[in-house]
Here is the input.
Amino acid sequence: MKRLLITALFVMGMLSYAVAQDIVGDWQGPLTTPMGELRLVLHVTKNSDGTLKATMDSPDQAMGGAPLDTFILDGSKLHFTLNAAKGTFDGSLKGNGTINGYWTQGNSPKMPLTLSKTTTPIKLTHDPAAPSDIDGTWEGIYDTPTGGTSAPDKNHVTFHITNTADGLTATVELPEMSIKGWPATAVTRKGNSIKIAIKQVNTIFQGKLSKSLDSMTGDWIQGDGPARALNLKKTKDEPAPAQKADAEKK
Here is the structure.
């Protein structure tokens, strides 16, 4: 009987070790928020004493490497916290290579979060490439009716478009939403047509470039709302990555 008990404890210990081994690595997935979708990346490593630790990236908010304050794996149950964001996750490690659970932040309701193991986590930075013909800062305003006889609300939009080794990228500034420097989730261009997706706020800008490549006419579409006319003007060229690096050294 004693031998059977020891064997059972040994097997349970090995299973716990296997689960811990399974969770080491990179995980990523979308967090569905009231505003839109944020992709999160979890980096799990193991200390020399066998304990686990993890950091979190939020690429769509231009934030990376935030150390988790607690990271507890109990069997298949996972709990971790990020005190800086007042965030807590509770979920389970599944046998199909996913972590399923809910993220809560402050007094917000539970938000579903499913993370999948990956060998290619989302990049926070991109290798430089020669500038494209639309690299630079683009600014515009779209109107949102307020109802009645009041003047419409003015909503300012600024895109900083940069070509990289991974293709066109952009960061966005939306001062009325207190957003600055958030990366667009996708920038696609075909001829004079351009589309910029900002899933963080459930929004797409789609427009047409002028022949002179100094303006765009298009629409701002947020969620299921109507298209709002948004015309962008190129206000300045962005310095090439090498020039930025040189300027930062001075």
